[in-house]
Design goal:
Order of helices and strands: HHHEEHHHHHHHHHHHHHHHHH
Low-confidence stretches: none
Number of helices: 20
Strand order of the largest sheet: 1-2
Strand content: under 5%
Radius of gyration: 21 Å
Largest sheet: 2 strands, antiparallel
Structural class: mainly alpha
């Protein structure tokens, strides 16, 4: 509809409103389906509370990204219809990723989302944006090949691509109770971890993140940092808890995620300190947060799984809020350099406060949702005897405070380069209000989303 109306509507700003209103239709169906448990198309498409939770999350993220793009799209005014349509198309792919129960359909859904994002990353058509799109596409194609190879190993060993049937057949491959009993299955799982690791931007598969985040349009950077990560974790949870959730082998892949979590947190936070560009800083922050979220994967159990979902929801609000504030500021200053944020609290007190509040949430300081998310997921890890991993995570949170608070200090203590106010449209203000209120409300009263997350992961049996 957006593509067709783009041919006839002269006021292109209306396309953003049509896109957001169009998201109400799948939202209504998602609400109506809550509590359902069924599979269609021979088990390829699964409808359960887990998939519906991620549909809520991705629909909300897509709507906020579209609202925050209204000011930004003037940079490619001729292609607004294509821009909004690609966001909607990628959102459809991500929603399917959360609903698939079979390896081939997982790959198709992943490519539907990824190809749209490759185009969106290069949408500015300047050298940096073109480089971002090309790097993202080439490295994404390599990761897809690695993922397919892992799927081929699993299919060859189990004789099926359906996750529930893989689970039934895995037992015969690891009769001794360890993944090392079947080196081919172990290799397949490692390749799956590598392929999915690219999508969630974890070490050592994070090499694309800084350049793509810096070169892509800022709303798309925000979209990549939260929606793509959420969809990636949805698939990981579905695959590993459904196909490889047996108690005999879950501890083996959980330890893989624990090690990756520790390395991702440390590398992301340490390298972020040296960044002078705020988008690159948040790129490395995104790598670090992939590590925090993987703590929930390592802490197998109900708390770990629901912790991943709640952390993703809280991270989406805080990171989107920060990026939306950055969109408003960079539209006026024309720069993403951290030094250009000096004195921003005098030029735009509200936007500066929201950016500071969201950065504080990313550190994990109360009363923000970031604190509650980290508290919840760290608690899950402690209950699974992963105290060493929690200690590393806490130390990394302390390190992250340095580069986040550096931006806050500069905005409130530094001298402004200009006294001009930072303008913003009503849609951008609405998206800022939603994200900042969400960060505060879920920081004070998180129980509604926590209960939704617990209901969602009840679809999976305990390892």
């Amino acid at each position: 509809m957006v593509i067709l109306l783009d041919l006839f509507i002269e006021q292109k700003k209306a396309l953003a409103g049509i896109s957001v209103l169009g998201l109400i239709i799948p939202l209504a169906f998602t609400i109506a389906l809550w509590g359902e448990q069924q599979a269609s198309f021979s088990g390829m498409l699964v409808v359960d509370n887990f998939s519906l939770f991620f549909k809520f999350l991705i629909l909300g993220i897509a709507a906020l990204v579209i609202l925050s793009s209204v000011d930004y799209v003037s940079k490619f005014a001729r292609f607004q219809g294509e821009y909004y349509a690609l966001i909607l198309l990628s959102a459809g792919g991500m929603m399917l990723m959360a609903s698939t129960g079979e390896l081939i359909s997982i790959y198709i859904a992943l490519e539907l989302a990824s190809i749209s994002l490759y185009v969106l990353a290069s949408f500015l058509k300047d050298p940096k944006s073109s480089e971002a799109g090309l790097k993202y596409m080439i490295l994404g194609a390599i990761s897809s090949a690695v993922l397919l190879l892992g799927m081929a190993f699993v299919f060859g060993l189990t004789g099926t691509t359906h996750l529930d049937q893989i689970a039934a057949n895995v037992g015969g491959l690891v009769s001794g109770g360890q993944l090392t009993d079947s080196p081919a299955l172990l290799l397949g799982i490692v390749l799956l971890v590598a392929g999915f690791g690219f999508k969630i931007a974890s070490v050592p598969f994070q090499m694309w993140v800084p350049d793509v985040y810096e070169g892509a349009p800022t709303p798309i950077t925000a979209y990549l940092s939260v929606a793509s990560k959420a969809a990636g974790f949805a698939v990981i949870l579905r695959v590993f808890y459904t196909a490889f959730g047996a108690e005999t082998i879950s501890g083996d892949w959980a330890m893989i995620f624990a090690v990756l979590a520790a390395i991702s947190m440390t590398l992301g936070n340490v390298v972020a300190i040296a960044q002078s560009n705020i988008k690159r800083m948040l790129a490395y922050s995104s790598i670090a947060h992939a590590g925090y979220i993987m703590i929930g994967l390592a802490a197998i159990g109900t708390l770990g799984k629901s912790g991943v979902l709640f952390f993703l929801a809280g991270y989406a609000l805080a990171n989107l809020g920060a990026f939306i504030a950055i969109i408003a500021i960079s539209n006026k200053t024309g720069s993403d350099e951290i030094t250009d944020y000096s004195g921003m609290a005098r030029r735009s007190p509200v936007i500066a406060f929201i950016l500071a509040f969201c950065l504080i949430s990313l550190i994990g300081i109360p009363p923000t949702v970031g604190f509650m998310a980290k508290f919840y997921i760290f608690n899950a890890a402690i209950q699974e005897n992963l105290l060493w991993l929690v200690i590393i995570a806490v130390l990394n949170s302390v390190v992250s405070a340095y580069y986040y608070l550096r931006v806050v200090r500069l905005m409130y203590v530094g001298e402004p380069a200009s006294e001009e106010a930072i303008p913003s449209s009503i849609p951008l203000r609405i998206s800022l209000a939603i994200t900042s209120l969400g960060v505060l409300v879920l920081g004070i009263y998180p129980w509604l989303v926590i209960r939704l997350a617990e209901n969602a992961v009840a679809a999976f049996p305990l390892p």
